[in-house]
């Protein structure tokens, strides 16, 4: 019976890739499948290459959207969040008074006129040490890094969140355009999930394993950490919890080393029992991979447990603001300048 179901999924997904018409639905999901991950990629294929980290700039801008069927599916799947999950979530207060939780989050953003990187050092270290993390991927990044995106999607250690299509500043973007940035990214995730379902390597996994791969991202991170009241509401209306952060690693700063990142993260995490750390894994972070072994084992020794952002949300009460900022309200207004925001829109 499993073989028959697997064959059906394979044929259905293959037909979808050849057509722009709406496909039959796949099972909805939880978080990752070790069976699918190991069946579709060898350890050598999962391992990264140093050159993948490089960013290619000044390319012809690519703003082509995903297929219409995928956008329609993403729109149909959207269900507004309850009031308790709205706002810009900066941390979580765990219900268990003894819990010490950390959500490591890494942004995978890419603007229209570039091809951003993939920091294999970060992913390989996390995977090799069994450390959970959430990756907020742009829709365009997922399209140009399809294989890596599907690997992250399938890995039970990780989850993929939505980071907007081309990293537009959604504080200065009209609400309708912001909706497209969010929905198109959901749609691209759906395209890749269906592509993975159509591969022979995944055919033998069965519906139970597919039920462990989320049907859609449920989390959103605002590009630049900027939002307006309208776009914050838009993300929630589309069913996405907006995840900000309580700890800024500052890894895009080339002047600091791994020790400085580790000190910043350690100090920031210790101020919370449910911290969210922001860093990068798309070539824009410097010394991020080198910093991980300096702070992760230390926090584990202190009783902290690393979880995905979704697991963190499920563990307690969100600490949310009604606006978006880095460390204090108004501190990211520099991103509203046209020369900063222009690349993503």
Can you walk through the features of this model?
With 345 residues, this protein is α/β, with parallel strands linked by helices. It is 40% helix and 14% strand. It has helices at 2-17, 34-40, 43-46, 68-77, 120-128, 139-144, 146-154, 175-197, 200-203, 206-210, 229-237, 258-269, 288-301, 309-314, 338-341; strands at residues 88-94, 101-108, 133-137, 158-162, 219-220, 241-243, 247-248, 274-280, 305-307, 316-321. The strands form two sheets. Strands 2, 3, 4, 7, 8 and 9 form a six-stranded parallel beta sheet that branches.
Proportion in helices: 40-55%
Structural class: alpha/beta
Given as residue ranges, the uncertain stretches (5+ residues, pLDDT < 50) are: 1-20, 339-345
User: CA-to-CA gap between the ends?
Assistant: 48 Å
Biggest sheet, in brief?
6 strands, parallel
Rg of Cα set: 19 Å
Query: In percent, how much strand structure appears in the residues?
Result: 5-15%
Give the helix tally.
Answer: 15
Q: Got a strand count? A: 10
**Whole-number average pLDDT?**
90
One letter per element, helices H and strands E, the order comes to: HHHHEEHEHHEHHHEHEEHEHEHEH
* Principal-axes shape call: globular
Question: Any key phrases for this structure?
Answer:
15 helices; single chain; 4-stranded mixed beta sheet; 6-stranded parallel beta sheet; 10 strands; 345 residues
Give a short overview:
With 345 residues, the chain is α/β, with parallel strands linked by helices. It contains 15 helices and ten strands.
Give a topology summary.
Elements: H1 2-17, H2 34-40, H3 43-46, H4 68-77, E1 88-94, E2 101-108, H5 120-128, E3 133-137, H6 139-144, H7 146-154, E4 158-162, H8 175-197, H9 200-203, H10 206-210, E5 219-220, H11 229-237, E6 241-243, E7 247-248, H12 258-269, E8 274-280, H13 288-301, E9 305-307, H14 309-314, E10 316-321, H15 338-341
Parallel strand pairs: 1-6, 2-3, 2-8, 2-9, 3-4, 5-6, 7-8
Antiparallel strand pairs: 1-10
Helix pairs in contact: 1-8, 4-8, 5-13, 7-8, 8-11, 12-13
């Amino acid at each position: 019976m499993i073989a028959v179901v697997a064959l059906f999924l394979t044929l259905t997904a293959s037909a979808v890739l050849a057509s722009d018409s709406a496909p039959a639905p796949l099972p909805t999901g939880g978080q990752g499948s070790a069976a699918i991950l190991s069946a579709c990629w060898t350890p050598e294929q999962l391992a990264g290459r140093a050159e993948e980290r490089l960013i290619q700039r000044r390319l012809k801008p690519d703003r082509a959207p995903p297929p219409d069927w995928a956008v329609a599916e993403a729109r149909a799947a959207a269900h507004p969040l309850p009031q308790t999950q709205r706002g810009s979530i900066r941390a979580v207060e765990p219900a268990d008074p003894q819990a010490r939780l950390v959500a490591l989050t890494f942004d995978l953003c890419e603007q229209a006129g570039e091809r951003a990187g993939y920091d294999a050092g970060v992913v390989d270290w996390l995977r090799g040490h069994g450390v959970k993390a959430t990756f907020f991927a742009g829709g365009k990044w997922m399209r140009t890094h399809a294989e890596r995106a599907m690997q992250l999607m399938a890995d039970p250690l990780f989850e993929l969140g939505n980071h907007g299509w081309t990293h537009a500043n959604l504080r200065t973007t009209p609400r309708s355009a912001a909706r497209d940035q969010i929905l198109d990214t959901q749609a691209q995730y759906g395209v890749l999930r269906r592509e993975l379902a159509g591969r022979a390597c995944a055919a033998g996994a069965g519906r139970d394993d597919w039920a462990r791969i989320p049907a859609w991202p449920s989390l959103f991170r605002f590009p630049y950490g900027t939002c307006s009241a309208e776009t914050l509401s838009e993300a929630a209306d589309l069913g996405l919890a907006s995840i900000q952060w309580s700890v800024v690693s500052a890894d895009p700063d080339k002047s600091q080393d791994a020790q400085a990142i580790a000190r910043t993260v350690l100090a920031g995490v210790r101020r919370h029992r449910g911290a969210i750390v922001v860093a990068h894994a798309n070539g824009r972070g410097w010394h991020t991979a080198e910093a991980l072994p300096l702070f992760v084992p230390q926090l584990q020794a202190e009783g902290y447990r690393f979880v995905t952002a979704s697991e963190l949300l499920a563990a307690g009460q969100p600490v949310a603001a009604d606006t978006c900022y880095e460390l204090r309200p108004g501190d990211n207004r520099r991103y509203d300048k046209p020369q900063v925001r222009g690349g993503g829109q």
